[in-house]
Amino acid sequence: MAKKIAFLFLFFAFSCSRTIAVSVMSVDIGNEFMKIAIVSPGKPMEIILNSDSSRKTPLIVAFRDGERFFGEAALSTATRFPEKSYTFLLDLIGKHIDSAPVKLYKKRFPYHNITGESKHSQIYVHHPEGMNFNESNPTHVLFYDMGSSSTSASIAAFQLVKTKEKGYVETNPQVVIKGVGFDRTLGGLEMQLRLRDHLAKLFAEQRNKKLETITSNKRAMNKLLKEAGRLKKVLSANTEHVAQVENVMDDVDLKAPVKRFKVKTFHVKEANIYPIQVEFTRTESEQPNKLVQRTLFTRNNLYPQKK
């Protein structure tokens, strides 16, 4: 009997156990560059590409005209305004003003105004224009996601806030969503269709044809749509390209330069102006299984209702 109980216990223990796979992110911060890598289950280590499609980002920050720049943008600023750009700062962390690394840094970068107290491991790097960016000033970042048929965007503010709990003051990071917006009609398909219509107009102008004659021809429009898809990819990295379509209609080809153009203006609102509605059933004493419709995220209600 004891063996059967032990066997059942082991059976349920192994059947209820599960393996949880997680991804690990590592950040390598050097004096000149930084890299970020991600290791996912079943996949080799991948070094993340930055906005410039590079695996390493210059570890430099610059302050100019009331704005803060980082990475390649700060590196461009350092070429013209070296006194407003700061790099190789790791050697200064936790050092006294009279320490050897700080003295060496001042010798290498004499245009920086660095002060501090010899009694404390804290130094100050002064900006020539007196600009002051402290940790309480929020940093606003725009996140956007464009798909084939819709686009969404949100503005988030990152900052450090001080809270007091149990008599101790702590500094914790905080994220606040400042604005959210979306468009269910703006996407890659909309761009491709407008490029197709643009190619149809170019073909009509080149061959002295009526635009209605071209748009009513389904084969011609399908050929232009295919070329528009190719142009969309090329124009995403180039400002101008040549469109070429053989035998658009009546054995006539199309060959014309195409430049980037504005597809549609997109605004990020300060609040969610597009309501999200949900329907659910709720059991009540008077009316069992009552159908209730609730509207979430409206202009006057920025947060979802709890009930």
UniProtKB/TrEMBL annotation:
GO terms for biological process: endoplasmic reticulum unfolded protein response. The lineage of its organism: Eukaryota, Metazoa, Ecdysozoa, Arthropoda, Chelicerata. Residues 1-21 form the signal peptide. Belongs to the heat shock protein 70 family. InterPro entries: ATPase_NBD, HSP70_peptide-bd_sf, Hsp_70_fam. GO terms for cellular component: endoplasmic reticulum chaperone complex. The keyword Secreted does not apply. Pfam families: HSP70 (PF00012). Keywords: ATP-binding, Chaperone, Endoplasmic reticulum, Nucleotide-binding, Signal, Stress response. This is Hypoxia up-regulated protein 1. The keyword Cell membrane does not apply. GO terms for molecular function: ATP binding; ATP-dependent protein folding chaperone. It comes from the Eukaryota.
